[in-house]
Amino acid sequence: MKGTGAAGSVAKKAQVRFTTCTLEAIAPINLGATPGDMNLPNATNRLNAALERILPEKRLVLGSDDAMRFVRLRPMTQLAAIGGITLAFGWTLVASSVLAIDAMSAGSSRDQIVRNQTAFEERLTQLSAERDARAAEALAAQNRFTVALEQVSRMQTELLASEERSRELEAGLDAAQSTLRDARSDAHAGAEASDAAAANRDDEVTAALDIVTGELRQAADERATAVEDAAQARQAVEEMSIEREQILARNDEILTQLENAVSVSVEPLDEVFRSVGMNPDDVLDTIRSGYSGQGGPLTPMGYSTRGNAALANSETKANQIIVTLDKMNTYRIAMEKLPMAMPVRDSFRLTSNFGPRWGRAHEGIDMAGPVGTAVYAPGDGVVTHAGRQGAYGNLIKIEHELGVETRYAHLSQVRVKVGQRVSQGELIGDMGNTGRSTGSHLHYEVRMNGRAIDPMSFIKAASNVQ
What we know:
This protein is an alpha+beta fold. Among the domains are: 260-292 and 308-337, no CATH class; 349-464, Glucose Permease (Domain IIA) (Distorted Sandwich), CATH 2.70.70.10. It has seven helices and 15 strands.
């Protein structure tokens, strides 16, 4: 054992001496230099010398059991390495900022669309309420006008009756005066009659004259009152007529504004369906055929005997507005049933558009994102396929109204079943990398009557409505 220990000690000493000698004989390795480094241009040497104060030369020692080496890092080499690392970091930061800005812009755009739609619906509700209020005011004015006309007619009847009674009293007065004259003639002719009988007769005539005079005075007062009431009634009728005309004019102005608003709102909806290759009339007929229920008891209609051209014109405009609003509501139902929304709500990158790709037709768009990114139904429909299918990998097919079908390929997980009815915004699967795919993404297709069309036409059309 001692011999062995001594021999080992001698070997270790020898190894130490060898290592020391080796270190003295080591030739430094200049990283990135060539054998002709000594012949580098003076400009390079001067640049290294200038950088020496900022980036002093570094040496990396590489050792093994039998030899040791070191690598010399010149200032220019260090500067190149630092520049490469800085460039890579800057590129990563810029790419991350662009993705974050895109995500924030997409969210802001959706919020703005919702706010615009809510504001438009509130404006329509306000205009409709104002239209109803003006119609109620016009109806109240019409009723007041009718009552005033009836009052005027009644006053005219009373005035005619008063005039008739006045004529009768005048005729009675003439008869009384004639009788008085006859009595006086008889009194003079019959002077031989007694004074008592003549006095009694004069008293009777005087009393009759007083009665007739009072009746005439009362009839004249009633006639003057009736004339004054009739004049006031005519003035009230004129004022109510002016007020009625103002209400009708205001009502017509509101109806015109409302009619223009709904007409302007319908035009983008027509353009939406034309942009995706659909006939708006066919869309409306198809939706209405599914929402055509009617019912309830029928009661006799009431007809007004007092026609008015202004009211009829307002009623025509109101009916036209109702028809246009029904058209807008039908379009809204159609847009809910068609795939107008985005199937992916999280951040993604559009890696391939619709059209030719690698010499073949690419019948959809590719939206790349992490595995497990949620995929939502862009419209109401029925699931017709949910499972594996060739190069599509895990595939979901949804049949929508009006002959439209959507496909979602390369999914990592399918969350619906065949025959299941889904609504717009309902979770149907997760993004993945199944089938013929080079990375995690969603292959999204839209087909109309079996023919593939660009899905972005639906998405852009829906955004243009707002």
